[in-house]
Please model this.
Amino acid sequence: MMILRHTLNQSLILIMKIPAYLLILSLLVVSCAGDDGTELTPELPAEDAQSEFFSNLFSLCGESFAGEATYPDDSDHDLVDTELVVNIATCTSERIELMLYRDSDTWHATWIVEKRNGALHLYHDHIGDKVYEEGEEPLTGYGGFADERGTETVQYFPADEHTAEILPEAATNVWMMQIDLENGRFVYYLERHDEPRFRAELTLIDS
Model:
């Protein structure tokens, strides 16, 4: 009988302690929030749009796109009235190289998207068919940093100071790259003086 009474007393004590424990727990939960109910311990910030664009482009490494120029309508333009192929050939955590071919297999340029000085930068390794005289430096390396307009699927690259120095006529250039992962599309677009100058649309080649 004494043992049974002792057991009952212990059970009553435990039951009486439960509300106090819940009260303490609720106070601890409230203390983790500010006066307006916001969390005092923030979540990790999401990647910015430029980083997300780079990651999406990186996911296409090794893939190729084929298509053609949709602007201008100028048969004398090297990249018009010919099949264009873009191969995303080389990818590292800091740099992605896109090889541009015309006539299916003639190298024309390499578009290089890289992380530089905390931002996304595009420049063109572009020699083309021009034959340079001995000692003459190839006109290459032009491009610019992405601006604030971009998203995870499209980025805009206004011409930088280096471009304005080596190509004064291109000082107002803005390059655009757009990727559509769902539909397997890639768009490269260039405008100058706020007017279209070149546009190519390409579709993912099934491997």
